[in-house]
Amino acid sequence: MALLPVAEAFARVIEGAEPLPAESVPLGEAEGRVLAEDLAARRTQPPDDVSAMDGYAVRGADVATAPARLRLIGEVAAGRPLAATLQAGQAARIFTGGVLPQGSDTIVIQENTAREGDIVVVNEPAARGKNVRVAGLDFRAGDVGLRQGRRLTGRDIALAAAMNFAQVPVHRRPRIAIAATGDELVPPGTEPKPGQIVYSNVFALAALARREGAEAIDLGILPDRLDATIAGVRRAREAGADVLLTTGGASVGDYDLVQPALAAEGLALSFWKVAVRPGKPLLSGRLGAMRVLGLPGNPVSAYVCAVLFLLPLLRKLTGRADFAPALSAGVLGRDLKANDERQDYLRATLTRRADGALVVTPFPQQDSSMLVPLAAADCLVVRPPHAGAAAAGTPCEFVKLDD
Length: 403
What we know:
Elements (H helix, E strand, L loop, with lengths): L5 H9 L7 E5 L12 E2 L9 E2 L3 E4 L9 E9 L13 E5 L11 E4 L3 E4 L2 E4 L9 E2 L10 E3 L7 H9 L4 E5 L3 E7 L3 E2 L10 E2 L2 H11 L3 E8 L3 H13 L4 E5 L10 H7 L3 E4 L4 E2 L5 E5 L2 E6 L3 H20 L8 E6 L10 E10 L5 E5 L8 H6 L2 E5 L11 E6 L3
Parallel strand pairs: 5-6, 13-16, 13-17, 14-15, 17-21, 19-23, 22-24
Antiparallel strand pairs: 1-12, 2-11, 3-10, 4-6, 4-7, 5-9, 8-9, 18-20, 20-21, 22-26, 23-24, 23-25, 25-26
């Protein structure tokens, strides 16, 4: 089977992925969730003309010139409106957020006034409407404040609350079951025996999935036996996983049992080799409604492929429109050799030059087993297939690692 171009593999992974059904959640649980429908304001904000400052509510005509002497008729605090209507020559003490009394249209700040008993002396003129927040300044009932497909931030949640929503409709979280494969793997905290290694992939992959709003289900380590691998696949289905993610065992060696196990369960295979580095042995397919991604076993390969293929899939399932990895522009911080037929994603650091340009410096060693450079990386430099040699300072594109 020929190596599939990255763009084609990406298109196949996300093909047919639709947002998961909606559910209503309290505002306190909505951060990071994706709106399933538009939210239109249920009220007007502010609902009345209110004061933006502490001072005095007056008629603009009375303070067009100064000094002006006005008689106080009452006081207005936030939440305590004044029932009386202001007449010519009158004023009301008012505090920030207080509703302007009927008849008033201007706020004179207290620094520009003096008190003489129940008389307030306005020492500087004020324009009509000064220091007033008019009704509907922020939004009006029926205005759409938040659009479907938006991933909610704390600011968005504050707006939803102000629009009088106690709960919001969001797409259900994807459930992703993650399995590591291989007799050589042992959990962290274990003393490895000869030939064994401590596995790390699941922790990075689960963290990426949770950051995208998914629920991660750890299936543990599947030993190199067909029956055990099939049992792991069945556990994922029984758990109601939307995505099954495996690491290792997706190639065609004697101990690579992921493909045979999936085939035994009825996998509709889409592809299993991609022209990408790191990560050529990448598998994608469907088991009924459950999507399957088989990532390479090397930790860097697994992580990079998850950034390129898993995250966009999860974003589509959560309802996001901005699901593709975003490309940014920079300049190379070191010389690079010509590339072969595979699209490279080089781990690199970011710095900013004096002129503001982002300098992207790939690590000199790019071995797919090395976690130290991966942990230190800020981004992945994208090198297209057959790209020629590139000198330091050459423009380049990169995918930022913003986890």
